[in-house]
Design brief:
- The complex is a heterodimer of chains A (118) and B (109).
- With 118 residues, chain A is mainly beta.
- Chain A has no helices and eleven strands.
- In chain A, the strands form two sheets. In chain A, strands 2, 4, 5, 6, 9, 10 and 11 form a seven-stranded mixed β-sheet that branches. In chain A, strands 1-3-8-7 form a four-stranded antiparallel β-sheet, with no helix packed on it.
- Chain A starts with a strand and ends with a strand.
- With 109 residues, chain B is mostly beta strands.
- Chain B has no helices and eleven strands.
- In chain B, the strands form two sheets. In chain B, strands 2, 4, 5, 9, 10 and 11 form a six-stranded mixed β-sheet that branches.
- Chain B is globular, with a radius of gyration of 13 Å.
- Chain B starts with a strand and ends with a strand.
- Classes of the chains: A mainly beta (118), B mainly beta (109).
- At the A-B interface, strand 5 and strand 10 of A face strand 5 of B.
Amino acid sequence: GAVVSQHPSRVICKSGTSVKIECRSLDFQATTMFWYRQFPKQSLMLMATSNEGSKATYEQGVEKDKFLINHASLTLSTLTVTSAHPEDSSFYICSAYPMTSDGYNEQFFGPGTRLTVL
Amino acid sequence: GQNIDQPTEMTATEGAIVQINCTYQTSGFNGLFWYQQHAGEAPTFLSYNVLDGLEEKGRFSSFLSRSKGYSYLLLKELQMKDSASYLCAVRDSNYQLIWGAGTKLIIKP
């Protein structure tokens, strides 16, 4: 199956700093990538939809100035958590659909990034 | 609103069979997915149903009834490594995935 990578897998930072998380589709092109956040024992929460070459679409309640998304190429999307605070500590996961002739099918997930803000 | 319901937790015995149910109410329907998620890891794809009926894949099978807004995931010959959370997700008319809260499956020897 298609492969999506994320980097870093784990990051610990001080409150007030910014953290960048990269999401790459390794063997397919993805015009659209998705960023999720998952708190312990809770389900995935979609944060935003990242569109190559255009602005991301943010879900209600997600601050676009705090969670900066850049989808600069068909294989790379980045999420930057600006001025991180302890409440931003979470598991961040990206995903992408390979484009197929019959439309979207399986969504592939990156391995996730565990962010801990001290 | 959109809603996906599945049991919070289930317990089963190694070697047995377990069925995890999922009911949904969404704005449109473009397929239902089951994912497995081990603690601290990202979800991995298990199955995809877009038409009514049963899809079988080895020890795992998934069933869909669109008229009832219902699906189940059937796991046979349970192994200890099947202990995980199982997430039901429905793709709506905007091709966005709506996620259930997940069912934590505990396998006992």
